[in-house]
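Bug #2210: token dump truncated for GM14711?
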Amino acid sequence: MLLFGSVLIYLLLNLQSLSAEIADCSFFDTVDISEGQRLSNGSYLYEGLLIPAHLTATYEFKLLANGDKEQVPSHVRGCVCKLRTCVRFCCPHDHIMDEGGSYANMTTEEAALLDPILNVTLDDGSVVQRHFKKELMVQWDLPLPCDDMFYLDNRDKTLLDLYYTLFLLLFTAMGMSWSFKIFSFLVQRDNLWVNVFLVADYFNWSQGIIIFMLFILRRKTLVLFKQQ
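Reproduced locally. Full output below:
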């Protein structure tokens, strides 16, 4: 009888550990720390943050945006948002968002251009700057409330102004090159002027290359080509 009771207690404890959630911690305050280093005392070291054992648990589900649970492979989650301020990203690590899609083929140059400083609004309304890799914990595996997404960037206006300026310059240059083509046609019997206006042909060729590189050869276009 004593042996049966011991086995029953052991099974109950293990069943509880398999299905347990972290006490007093919302799922949306957790991060998948399965890739972290598990220490001998049960705590985890994840991205430079030490997470005590009582703030970790094994989950076999993930919570969807509507509150439903979806069964997933067993993994360890940590209540990291109790230890460090969390920030939610739509894209996983080393992914880039472009025109509503998330892509894994981020280049080293693109990663170097990322601005790691985020403006964070505190409860008192003040705004402080934080380094998202060193001072924040990124949550990237949480469910999104919708399928479509778009990015907001305070540099968009500057980028649009640059595009408009570039378009205006290209349009002006194309008008000049077309004028050169008309003049070259009118003086086509004069070898000297024909050679001079031959520059217009090279100019048109270079414009085509520039337009192709800027407006056609884009990441999303390349991804679509690879998917074909």
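Output looks complete on our side. Residues 156-186 form the longest helix (31 residues). Marking as cannot-reproduce; reopen if the truncation happens again.
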